[in-house]
Structures are given as structure tokens and as C-alpha cells.
Amino acid sequence: MAKKRVVAIDIGTYTAKMVQIEQSSGALRLTNAGVVTYADKDDKQQVAESIRHLWASLGGTAKKSNPLSLFNRNAPEIVLALPRSLVSTKRLANLPTGTDDQLASIVAIAAESELPFRVEEAIFTYHDVRRTSDATSVELISTRRASVTDYLDFLEQMGVSASAVTPSMIAIAETAANSGCTKPTFVVDIGASQTDFCFVEDGVLRFSRSFRLGGDRLSEHISQTLNVDSETAAEEKQHIPADEAPTSTWTAQLLGELRRSIAAATAHRASDSFDATEETDATENVTPTEIETELWLCGGGARVPALAATLEEELGIPTSFWNPLHAIEQQSNIKIEPQGAEVRTILEEWGDTLAVPLGVGFSALNSTLQPSLLPKEAAETLTQTTRQRQIFATAGLGVLIVGGIFFGGYTLQRSQKHRAEMVDARLASYAQPVAAAQAQLGRELALTEMLVHNISPLDILYALSEMFRDRTQVAWTNFNIINLHEPTTARITFNLEGASHEAINNLIGALNRSGVFTNVRPGEVTTISENRKQIFQVQVRCNLTASAVRAFAKKRYPTPQPRVDEPATAEAELEIVPPMSKILELENEEAKEKE
Q1: How do 491-498 and 533-544 pair as beta strands?
Q2: CA–CA gap between residue 462 and residue 548 (Å, rounded)
Q3: pLDDT value of position 283
Q4: Degrees (nearest 5) of the Cα angle 375, 380, 386?
Q5: How far apart (Å, rounded) are the C-alpha atoms in residues 250 and 252?
Q6: What band does 3 get if pLDDT is binned at 50, 70 and 90?
Q7: What's the distance, CA 7 to chain centroid?
Q8: For the chain, what is the total number of helices (H) and then of strands (E)?
Q9: CB within 8 A of 116, min separation 6: which ones?
């Protein structure tokens, strides 16, 4: 499978984030990431310059006019996130049934009367398709064309084009699905100025909304209450718990918005779960606790101390701080392999804020249809650029191939004769040594073949009889060997009769411990009665180990043991002392007298 690379970009209020994801052989790898901050979000020139530096740090290029880029077949695909606050959603029900191609036309017709903007000013798509035998329903996603164009302008200044524009709530749901979201889950991504609320069930986005409450509101409240500057307030909010003043005021506002969002999501889920013919009041009393939901917090605003515990206590829903990067790293099919320690540091510091860019990348690599708000004219331009790149790449490859053929033919023609002469000369010099070596090798092979031990059935029978000498307990009734000429593939089959299960088990254990037999596979034990005695029968299959040949050879041709002689005691007893001279005897006697 060819490698596919995607760079996902999320342009936020004060930060822009990029992640690069590669797909190869069905596996996903996060290979690069970067985050850049800017002080004035309304200064588009400053934001564009910051994003351009971030793109360059990831190995991108800002040279749009570079003709060599047309030949770059490994150029990554660029995908862009669009904030949920700029998106409107609405469920279109009771649409006519049809194929996927027909459904796109049906939605386009129905959307004209449902869009909150003028048709010429809007871009729309759809997702969450639900079909019955009589009708089809989809969730319509729309936004203003100008909103998308503003974000695409940042990429235009970098000299790149986006292949898709993914709403942030779709991206959050995709990241949650890839990080092990199994229960119905409320995902709350708290940003600087906005908070995205998503309800994900069975890996699919069921409900979403955005409200204007984020980390900026908390910083402003702390700044006014404590009478400190904005930088000090931003630092203090990282240390004041959610249930203590002045942070508790902001927490109360967040709780109010979450209660409204949870109520809306629960009602939306209930309306989808019950038949339209049932009584409507049957769904009014459904609560989040009855459907065993969870609540995940992520984003920079979720770093407020004790926020998860406070929300869990107030809402009665299990709440946890969710780091998307750590969650997806635990999945076996998604690997985090950053290029360098600096990227790892960025991922550790900003991992809890990467739900949107990660989801945008996953959506681009998903083979199923994913909603995109890319303008039609931008998609056509991208298609034309892709075709031009393919044409130029094909033409360039053709030129290289033709030139290579001519050059190779010319070179081959000049060097062929010289090489042939050199080969002939070397072959002539090697002829006599090769003939001598072949003769010597033939003699050695013949001698080796004569010395190699060949296993015979008698070797195997002898080994079995050595292991089981007591024939009153176990007896062989049949014996078969296949492929004995190749010991590694030899298959041995024999039938056994035993006086008891214990005797058969002892035999099987001895075979496994023998070091000669391997892969011992006993069949089913059956019983028969003979002369009023119960006899147990079983068929056993096994193979020979790699060391069986050597073991059988040692058994057939034992190595002579070295002879150990007894101590030469007799020789010691018969030892004769040589005679001494007269002078030495006199000296010894004088020495003894002096003593």
C-alpha cells in the first residue's frame, strides 16, 4: 500500500496547530507536530506570518511558483479545520430514498429552503445518513462562504491549497472514536473564546453545539476580581481550583451551559430512539445517568484545577480529563513516532489541545465519505492542479526513461566488448583451479555421504523400547513411519495399548522429555474389554527433533571411553633404591653421630 501523508491545520484564537499523519499498510503514524502562538487574533497579517513559520518548521515550502513542486508525488495533503461556532446544523427528515449519488442531489434541493443563509452565500454538506424502507434523513451542515474563504486565505499566502475543510465537531468525534470511545460520551473542548460540545455514540457524532465561554472569560474575571493584569490572571487561573473563588463564578457559568447542552443532546437522542408514532411524553424523563454516559474534558480551558471533579459532583456524570494524544497512543493501530525530541516536547505540552487537528487528519485518511465545506471552485482548482502534477510527472518520467535508455545503450555498447574480453581472460585463468577444486569436492562429498548416519526404523524402535521396558503396562500394536529419508519432515504414527490412563500418560510424558521426539500429539483414548480386563487404546503421532540424527548415531556408534588406569601400587612396593658410594655412607654416619 502506498504511503499517504496528511497535514491537518487548526487555526484557533491564539494558537495554530499542525499535525502530520502518515498511513502505510493500513497503519497510522503521527510523525510531526507543531504549535505557534500569536498575541492579536484580529491581526490577519500576524496570524498568516505565524502560520507560515509553523508550516516551514514542519518541512513545508512557501514557494508557490516552484515548478519542481509539480513533480512532487509525495507532497502531503492539506486539510483545514473550521470552528463549530461558524457552522449551523439541522436534521433533514423524510427525504426520498435513493442511492448515494441521488442523495447528494436530493439534499441539495432540500437545503435551499432550510439554509440559514442565502444559497449563493452558503456552503453546505451533510453526514449521519439514516435510511428506512420509506424515507431517509441526514444532518445538514452549512456555513457562510466568506467564513471558509477567510481561513483558506491563510493557506493561500503559504502557497498551498486545502483538499478538505472539516468542521471541528466532526473532527472531535473522529478523534474520540479513534481513542476508544465505547460508551455514549459528551466531549467538551474548552478553547480560548469558544467551547465545543459534542455527543458521540457508537463512534458517530449525534449532537453538537458551541457556546461563547472559554479560557478568556475566566482570565478576564480573575483580572477584574483580583485587580491584576491579563498575563498574571492567565497564570493564576492555572492554580485556583474550579470550586474556589473567583474561578467558581466561571465554573457556574460553564455548568449552566453544560446542563443546557446535555438536556438538548439527551432530547435529541431520545427523539431518534423512539418511533414517531409513540407518545412524545415517553422521552421527556430520559436523563444522562439512565443511558450511562461519560463526560470528557479537553482543550486549554480544561486545565483548571479540580474542574473534572467539580463537574462530576454537580452533574452526576462520570467526568475525566481527556488527553487525545495519550488516548490514541494506546491504540494498537495508531503510533506516535515524532521526528525529534522537540516534537515530543510539543506533543507532551499541547497533547490535550490536539483533538481537532488529530480528528481532521483522521477524517482525511478515512476511506468512508466525510463531510467537507471546501468551496466547489476550490475543489475544482485542486483537481486541475493534481492533474497537472500527474501530467508533468508522467512526462518527466517518460523523458527520464527515454534518456536513460539511450544513455544506457550507448554505455553498454562501448563497454560490452571490453567486459567480454575481461571475462574470457578470467575464465581461462580459473579453468585449471576450478577443475581441481571440483575433483577434490567430489571426493570429499562422497566420503561425507558415506560417513553420514542414516536413521532407520530400528533406531526409532530401539529408542522407544529403551524408554518403555515394562511391556505389561504398554504395548505397541501398530507402527508407521513416513519420509524417514528427511528426518526434519519424518512423521511417526503408532498405536498403543495400555493397562491404565496413567501408563499412557507416562508414555506421552517420556516421549516429550526424550529430546528425540517432538510435537507429540495423542489422539482420543478409547477402551476395549479383553478377557474381562479393560484395555486403553490410543493413536500417537509425533516428529523427530533436529538433534535426533546425532542422538541415534551416538547410540549406534558409542564413543570409546578413555581408559583410567589404577594407581601403580605394585611398582611402588618394588621400587629399588640405588646404591650409594662409600664416601657418602661415611659422611652420613658421621652426621648421625654428631646429632
Answers
A1: antiparallel
A2: 13
A3: 39
A4: 125
A5: 5
A6: confident
A7: 18
A8: 17, 19
A9: 88, 142
16 contacts 33 by C-beta, under 8 angstroms: no
Distance CA 350, CA 323 (A): 9
Q: Which grid cell is 178?
A: 479513534
Look at residue 259 in the predicted model and tell me its pLDDT.
96
For residue 60, the SS3 value is coil
Q: Strand order in 27-37's β-sheet?
A: 164-167, 77-82, 4-11, 15-24, 27-37, 334-336
Query: DSSP labels for 552-575?
Result: HHHHHSPPPPPP-PPP-HHHHHT-
For residue 51, pLDDT beyond 70: yes
Decide if 215 contacts 254 (C-beta within 8 A): no
Q: Residue 483, by phi and psi: left (phi above 0), alpha (psi -120 to 50) or beta?
A: left
Secondary structure element (H or E) that encloses residue 544, with its range:
strand 533-544
Is residue 495 a contact partner of residue 539, using CB atoms and an 8 Å limit? yes
DSSP string across 326-359: HHHHTSTTEEE--SSHHHHHHHHHHGGG-HHHHH
Mean pLDDT of 406-412: 78
Report how far residue 434's alpha carbon sits from residue 30's, in angstroms, rounded to the nearest whole number.
57
Least confident residue range of 45-49, 200-204, 211-215, 553-557? 553-557
306 Cβ partners below 8 Å, 6+ apart? 241, 242, 243
- Cα-Cα-Cα-Cα torsion 308, 314, 318, 322, nearest 10 degrees, comes to -20
Could you tell me if 8 and 64 are in contact, meaning their C-beta atoms sit under 8 angstroms apart?
no
Give the three-class secondary structure for 3.
coil
Amino acid identity, position 424: D
Q: What amino acid occupies position 192?
A: A
pLDDT for residue 583 is more than 90: no
Q: Give the distance from CA 79 to its chain's centroid.
A: 22
Specify which residues 139 forms β-bridges with. Answer: 91, 127
Look at residue 84 in the predicted model and tell me its pLDDT: 93
DSSP category for residue 578: P
> Taking the CA atoms of the chain, what radius of gyration do you get in angstroms?
42
Position 55 pLDDT exceeds 70 = yes
- Give the single-character DSSP code of 200: E
pTM of the complete model: 0.62
For residue 87, what pLDDT is reported?
A: 93
Please tell me the predicted confidence (pLDDT) of residue 173: 92
